[in-house]
Known about the structure:
Layout: H1 5-25, H2 29-33, H3 36-45, H4 96-104, H5 107-112, H6 130-141, H7 146-156, H8 166-182, H9 188-205, H10 209-225, H11 232-250, H12 291-295, E1 310-313, E2 316-319, E3 322-323, H13 324-329, E4 333-334, E5 348-354, E6 357-364, E7 377-382, E8 391-393, E9 397-398, H14 403-412, E10 418-419, E11 423-427, E12 439-445, E13 448-455, H15 461-471, H16 476-488
Antiparallel strand pairs: 1-2, 1-8, 3-7, 4-5, 5-6, 6-7, 7-13, 8-9, 10-11, 11-12, 12-13
Amino acid sequence: xxxxxxTIRILSAVIISSIMMISxxxxxxxxxxxxxxxxxxxxxxxxxxxDDHFDGNDDYSFSNEENEYNKSPVSDIxxxxxxxxxxxxxxxxxxxxxxxxxxxxxAVQSKINGxxxxxxxxxxxxxxxxxxxxxxxxxxxxxxxxESLLEQLDKLTCFDGIDSDxxxxxxxxxxxxxxxxxLGYLEFxxxxxxxxxxxxxxxxxxxxxxxxxxxxxxxxINWISKGGFGFSGDIQERLxxxxxFVTCGEYYTGPYAVDFDMELTPKASAMYYDHMDPQxxxxxxxxxxxxxxxxxxxxxxxxxxxxxxxxxxxGDLYHIPATVQAFLDNEWSLEENDLTFKPGTTDNEIxxxxxxxxxxxxxxxxxxxxxxxxxxxxETISASSLGDVSFILPxxxxxxxxxxxxxxxxxxxxxxxxxxEAGIEISLxxxxxxxxxxxxxxxxxxxxxxxxxxxxxETKSEQFESYIRNSAFNNLEKNIEKARxxxxx
Length: 489
């Protein structure tokens, strides 16, 4: 059955709204998805299957895998099995390096939640705030005890050979295991019986912390795009923290400062600090690629959530703020070769061309870096600045769309907005503008959408460069001293 964009937009919004209402009332979302709604979506929208994985502390949502993902041979599909050889072990029986490795598997999510990235589950088992942790695990995962924890673990570890989301699922599985131990749902030995075999699968599937974290982030971006509760700022903060950990690890500090391929045994010992170089050079300013540029990951799906920061430009997908290099990777060319900006400046204008078309972008050059245009962040982009180049938001919101249809869609998707003189404005911030002060503006001319603009007025990304310098680059000797103390202990 063929249906138009307008019908798809409205049906998608109604379906998401219905599922959100189900989660609020406490009814099992899985029961609903595999009931009449499931048949309706599959028949009308040609969706093959659902991914009923939920991210802790977030609202529920559904998503489906895309057909273009290639299935791995059956022999390559990770097989997760409990290892009971750790029975009877206590936390005093294992090394600090093993604990550090396990904590690193979900360090990004722990940091986002304001938890301690050096402690299993992010809190001590006698912490006075455990009720908060328990509430998040129940709200995000329906986990309230050992049985419900293992039920969710089983879902997250039923790998199907789709490489695109293994790291996403593995990290979340390690997260709920760690929090389950912290809350007393699992004793320490049983926690190890699940966490260590899963860790070995992570090592088999990925080459280092960087590739593992990138895969987790790709999964998160896809989850948000398909209806997972979140905003552009949620995505960007995870990207920033992951790259921050990668960079700090190079200077012997942070969660990733432990061998990724370390043998995961009770007495595991990291070799990460055995050859520390106190003279390790800082990157020269003219050679420095911004961490935020290194962290950028292109989305794989446009999705339905307009506040995700994902846009489609002339058929290609970007997450805003995006690097100029992301456009160059899609065969756009800088009108001016070897263009550089003064580091730390904003409102830098560039022109890109491709196939006879041109677009104008406004960029920020991150402080204390090379200033190369390719590594700048696109901070402002609008349909009007792109001329005849197509510019589409999730749920296929675009110039020319009916005003009433656009507003109904935003309302159905539970996205609040403020009225402006030209139209409406939506915050892309995650929490109280702390992470991202970006906004999405939609202008109307009569009964039609006349312009769409994303403004990244101030993102946390731009602050991470000095943060990394202060905590990693400029504290090399202190980091080495701390590392040696840890190794000796």
